[in-house]
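DM from R.C. (forwarded with permission)

"hey, sorry to bug you on a friday — could you get me a structure for this? deadline for the figure draft is monday and I only need the backbone to look sensible"
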Amino acid sequence: MTEMVVKKNGNGNKNSADLPADRAAAVEAGIVHYQLVAAERDQLAKDVVALNNEITSYKIMVEAQKSQMNDLESRIAAAGAIRDQAVAERAKYETLFMSIQAMLRTFNIPAAPLIKEMDNNET
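My reply, with the result:
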């Protein structure tokens, strides 16, 4: 490639050592800078890939947490339904016992047990 530049300039020098020192330093500095920027770009591309992988793993974790949260909410709803059923049954039995108690009061039946225990000596 340098041969093409030399031929285009027309000076016929094929030796790059004939380049003035300040220009050779500028070329070298430009190449070094380009290589540093290219290395930084490559490193940043690797970092982007790693961060995208990390984001994907976090998204998976979030979805798992959402699934677990939905499962827990479903269990809570089921437990609430069971509790409501138990409260309804208790209210039904309370009503039944209250009506039996009202009947006992109506017929003046005492609250004491009606069957008395017998001693073994009283035969």
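R.C.: lifesaver. Residues 21-106 form the longest helix (86 residues).
me: no worries. The mean pLDDT is 86.
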